[in-house]
């Protein structure tokens, strides 16, 4: 069984979508706190549809609690962790995955902290993407089209919920739930998940 780990997630709808994907793929979800929302949030449950109650989910106080409760030893756990970050050279598709691996995704606004990445450099992987495009030429104009146009936090996210740099108005990354699905399905394919075999050439 594969494990999806969300490091301090901030957007409840993303976590709800990811929880639904975990149920449908037989994966476990690990939420590393502090969380940016309550587990009672209606947006989380709405995105999770009726699947949330069937989800195998564990919540941790922080990263240290996650490492301790999963029995990781400093010398032996690195190969089982896959830290997804834009700062890696190797891609997720170049890395072999095994059952019981942990796919770790950072918070929507800032990703996995640099100190965590630096402590596990061989576990860092990225999703290949084209260079960021100028998604919003004028964040004020975009925000003006919203009913809550005066809300400062709204101007820091694009229409998909991705956080943007308010200084240059560019998308910072894939939407978290999309990134999880891309990597999780490759890991499932590699570990023999039913119906995902590559066709013979």
TrEMBL record:
Lineage of source species: Bacteria, Bacillati, Actinomycetota, Coriobacteriia, Coriobacteriales
Q: Which residues bind S-adenosyl-L-methionine?
A: 84, 106, 127, 135, 173
Pfam families documented for this protein: SpoU_methylase (PF00588)
Q: Which GO terms describe its biological process?
A: wobble position ribose methylation
Note the superkingdom of the native organism.
Bacteria
GO-annotated molecular function: RNA binding; S-adenosylmethionine-dependent methyltransferase activity; tRNA methyltransferase activity
What's the protein here called?
Answer: Putative tRNA (cytidine(34)-2'-O)-methyltransferase
Please state every residue range assigned to the domain named tRNA/rRNA methyltransferase SpoU type: 2-141
């Amino acid at each position: 069984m594969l494990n999806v780990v969300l490091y301090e997630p901030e957007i409840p709808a993303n976590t709800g979508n990811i929880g639904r994907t975990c149920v449908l793929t037989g994966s476990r979800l690990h939420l590393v706190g502090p969380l940016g929302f309550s587990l009672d949030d209606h947006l989380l449950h709405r995105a999770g549809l009726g699947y949330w109650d069937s989800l195998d989910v564990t919540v941790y106080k922080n990263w240290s609690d996650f490492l301790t409760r999963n029995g990781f030893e400093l010398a032996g756990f690195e190969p089982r962790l896959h830290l997804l970050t834009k700062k890696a050279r190797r891609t997720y598709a170049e890395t072999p995955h095994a059952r019981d691996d942990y796919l770790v995704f950072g918070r929507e606004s800032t990703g996995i902290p640099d100190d965590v990445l630096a402590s596990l450099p061989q576990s860092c992987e990225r999703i290949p993407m084209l260079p960021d495009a100028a998604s919003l030429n004028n964040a004020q104009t975009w925000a003006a089209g919203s009913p809550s146009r005066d809300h400062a936090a709204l101007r820091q996210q694009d229409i998909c919920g991705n956080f943007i740099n308010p200084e240059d108005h560019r998308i910072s990354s894939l939407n978290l739930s999309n990134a999880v699905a891309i990597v999780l399905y490759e890991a499932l394919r590699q570990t023999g998940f039913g119906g995902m075999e590559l066709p013979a050439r």
